[in-house]
């Protein structure tokens, strides 16, 4: 296993240009390398594609990636080819290819030149193609967008149900299932339908810390959208609409206001959709207006905002669609315009379905409405929906509810009445029915004994909306359970029973949802002029190569170049996300431009600082501040100054305590993921009596070491105190 780990890290560094895995990537890759069925639930932007890309390079044979999105396949192939000099390293095999192209792909696969083959479920399932798939060695099957298997998922595809049978015809190999969203029910469906009961399961946090969630009332929606897009001109965005007609209307409206846009929906010819996608990827347009019913296969990491013109049909849809924003870890604003009429449209649509589908649609609709009308932290509601614990309300003000000062009101008396009613009715009724009992609607429930209940009409003074708020927060706080499979009936959990015995303050926000405009987040401190120059070079090369600009270098790479100012190949290879292959393939023009820029502007580069700095009385403090400004690695600081990590942390703490701000996020992000950082930050903000590290170690029972706790503490002090 040790040898495999070394190989993994070597491929990550040499082929992809990354120094460290994210989240569960390394564990998941080791699992498939060991021949295990592997189930990966990882949010958009978490690096799912690397989980099958990297092992495909190591294992003998070809990895078969089954994907429902033909449009996405080309992007994936372009991406993996950008790292390699072998043009046949990856191919897609689907209905868009001509007969000649199909033969070329098949020959490359049989000749052993190809390591990754992307196929649609319809393509691999055809009898005429089975002989081909049996003619070469397959390393493993990767089922991308695995939620498509489940009717409870947000994008059910019937052909996905046949994948298990198709694989059994080709030959048993390890299966990797990947999805960005999966509730407990969807997860069980995927396992059952793929036959991977024995699997290694890796679930990453559903928290996307860089995304800002906001709900706005639909009053002057067209005007608000135009204003927002103009304020963010030059940034890429997606607007989702309920109908094809509305998507075309909104796109036309944007173009009339000199904002570059195109519509994208299932009613357009495939060639038109492809051109729209290419225009978006190549940055010839800024905005795509799409129907929520049509899955967009656009793998674009720098989408800066996602606007929902209409209501999504489920919370999973919403999470998936908003997940297209900020996949590179940068800015990502998610704005949903809410109109109750959209709910009526969905209810009308659901009423025409059969009983089973109607029930599914109703439950999914209730969840998205609950999210919108929820006055608590939006991130907390999302994480609860996906079964992830998020006990603290703190979300770094990255949602409208947490961002503004809200008036809280204690509703413990009302909660007690609600819990008593649920208990008295023996967990047989859903939220709507409980509200009717509390309001005394005797004719609304087909039960002759309702009006004899102790709590009948006892909540007539509580508005429907407030009862909904209390029940929804009660569910999130684990006082109440909602059984989706039995028509949403409510029951009391142990915490609810404990509350009835000994009630305590239970607060809700005294509002529905706000209509404040999105916040402009603080920009990064890189050289914007140089980034602009590098973006122009990237776009020119992209047009020459006919590939999206981000395939060449993503924004974080350009930003790192503008901080480090690399002027030779060796320095460029040390830039984030570059690596040897990309440096040699695309780097020459960037190096030339950076050198000219440095000379023309008399810039003293980060590398020059190290050589020229002279010893001074306080030179260690100055060196650390300068190193942090240019994001020099802690290991490099320690080596160059011959100091220990403890001394380095002591000096950083002294710097912060003296009132100087220092940004060491780049290092903290290397050793701790965002969920871990927030967990430690939450402790110091909400749990700790003082800033004692030893007490923090006791609290976390050894989960974090002293250095990790000190890093987050000093960041907290720097952010809040300075």
Put the structure in a nutshell:
With 722 residues, the protein is α/β, with parallel strands linked by helices. A hairpin with a 5-residue loop joins strand 15 and strand 16. Mean pLDDT is 83; it is low at 1-5, 513-524 and 609-617.
Label the overall shape: globular
Could you say what the CATH topology of the largest domain is called?
Rossmann fold
Which stretches are poorly predicted, pLDDT < 50 over at least 5 residues?
1-5, 513-524, 609-617
Report the C-alpha radius of gyration, rounded: 27 Å
Biggest sheet strand line-up: 3-4-2-5-6-1-7
- CATH top-level class of the largest domain: Alpha Beta
Give the name of the CATH architecture of the largest domain.
3-Layer(aba) Sandwich
What amount of the residues lies in strands? 5-15%
Query: Kindly, what is the distance between the CA atoms of the first and last residues, rounded to a whole number of angstroms?
Result: 46 Å
Biggest pleated sheet: 7 strands, parallel
Structural class: alpha/beta
User: What is the number of independent domains?
Assistant: 5
Mean pLDDT: 83
């Amino acid at each position: 296993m040790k040898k495999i780990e070394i190989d993994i890290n070597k491929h990550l560094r040499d082929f992809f240009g990354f120094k460290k895995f994210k989240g569960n990537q390394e564990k998941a890759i080791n699992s498939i390398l060991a021949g295990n069925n592997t189930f990966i639930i990882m949010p958009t932007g978490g690096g799912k594609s690397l989980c099958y890309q990297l092992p495909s390079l190591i294992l003998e044979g070809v990895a078969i990636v089954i994907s429902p999105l033909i449009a996405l396949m080309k992007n994936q192939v372009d991406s993996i080819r950008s790292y390699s000099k072998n043009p046949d390293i990856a191919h897609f095999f689907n209905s868009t290819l001509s007969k000649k192209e199909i033969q070329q792909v098949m020959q490359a696969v049989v000749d052993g030149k190809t390591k990754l083959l992307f196929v649609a479920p319809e393509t691999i399932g055809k009898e005429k193609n089975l002989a081909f798939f049996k003619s070469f060695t397959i390393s493993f099957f990767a089922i991308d967008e695995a939620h498509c298997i489940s009717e409870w998922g947000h994008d059910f595809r019937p052909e996905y149900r046949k994948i298990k049978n198709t694989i059994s015809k080709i030959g048993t190999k390890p299966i990797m299932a990947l999805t960005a969203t999966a509730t407990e029910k969807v997860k069980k469906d995927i396992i059952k339908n793929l036959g991977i009961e024995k699997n290694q399961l890796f679930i990453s946090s559903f928290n996307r810390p860089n995304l800002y969630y906001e709900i706005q009332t639909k009053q002057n929606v067209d005007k608000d959208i135009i204003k927002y897009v103009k304020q963010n001109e030059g940034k890429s965005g997606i607007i989702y609409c309920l109908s094809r007609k509305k998507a075309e209307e909104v796109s036309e409206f944007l173009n009339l206001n000199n904002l570059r846009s195109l519509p994208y929906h299932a009613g357009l010819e495939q060639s038109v959709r492809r051109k729209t996608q290419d225009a978006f990827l190549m940055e010839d347009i800024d905005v795509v207006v799409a129907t929520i019913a049509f899955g967009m296969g656009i793998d674009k990491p720098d989408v800066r905002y996602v606007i929902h013109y209409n209501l999504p049909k489920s919370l999973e849809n919403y999470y998936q669609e908003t997940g297209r924003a900020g996949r590179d870890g940068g800015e990502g604003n998610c704005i949903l315009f809410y109109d109750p009429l959209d709910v009526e449209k969905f209810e009308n649509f659901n009423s025409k379905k059969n009983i089973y589908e109607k029930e599914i649609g109703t439950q999914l609709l209730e969840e998205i409405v609950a999210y919108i009308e929820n006055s608590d932290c939006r991130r907390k509601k999302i994480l609860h929906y996906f079964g992830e614990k998020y006990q603290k309300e703190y979300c770094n003000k990255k949602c409208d509810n947490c961002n503004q000062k809200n008036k809280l009101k204690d509703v413990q008396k009302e909660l007690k009445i609600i819990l008593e009613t649920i208990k008295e009715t023996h967990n047989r009724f859903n939220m709507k029915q409980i509200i009717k009992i509390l309001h005394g609607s005797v004719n609304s429930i087909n039960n002759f004994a309702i009006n004899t209940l102790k709590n009948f009409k006892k909540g007539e003074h509580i508005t429907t909306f407030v009862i909904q708020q209390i029940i929804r927060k009660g569910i999130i706080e684990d006082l109440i359970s909602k059984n989706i499979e039995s028509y949403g009936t409510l029951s009391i959990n142990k915490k609810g029973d404990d509350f009835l015995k000994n009630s305590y303050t239970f607060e809700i926000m005294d509002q529905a949802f706000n209509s404040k405009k999105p916040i402009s987040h603080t920009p990064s401190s890189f050289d914007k002029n140089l980034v602009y120059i590098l973006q122009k070079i990237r776009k020119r090369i992209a047009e020459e190569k006919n590939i999206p600009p981000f395939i060449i270098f993503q924004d974080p790479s350009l930003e790192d170049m503008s901080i480090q100012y690399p002027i030779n190949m060796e320095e460029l290879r040390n830039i984030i996300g570059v690596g040897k292959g990309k440096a040699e393939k695309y780097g020459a023009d960037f190096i030339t431009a950076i050198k000219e820029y440095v000379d023309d502007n008399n810039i003293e580069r980060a590398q020059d600082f190290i050589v020229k700095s002279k010893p001074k009385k306080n030179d260690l403090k100055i060196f650390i501040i300068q190193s942090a400004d240019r994001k020099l690695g802690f290991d490099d600081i320690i080596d160059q100054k011959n100091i220990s990590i403890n001394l380095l942390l002591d000096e950083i703490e002294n710097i912060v305590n003296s009132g100087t701000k220092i940004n060491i996020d780049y290092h903290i992000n290397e050793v701790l993921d965002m969920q871990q950082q927030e967990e430690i930050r939450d402790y110091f903000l909400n749990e700790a009596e003082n800033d004692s590290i030893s007490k923090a170690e006791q609290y976390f029972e050894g989960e974090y070491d002293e250095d990790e706790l000190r890093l987050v503490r000093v960041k907290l002090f720097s952010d809040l105190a300075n």
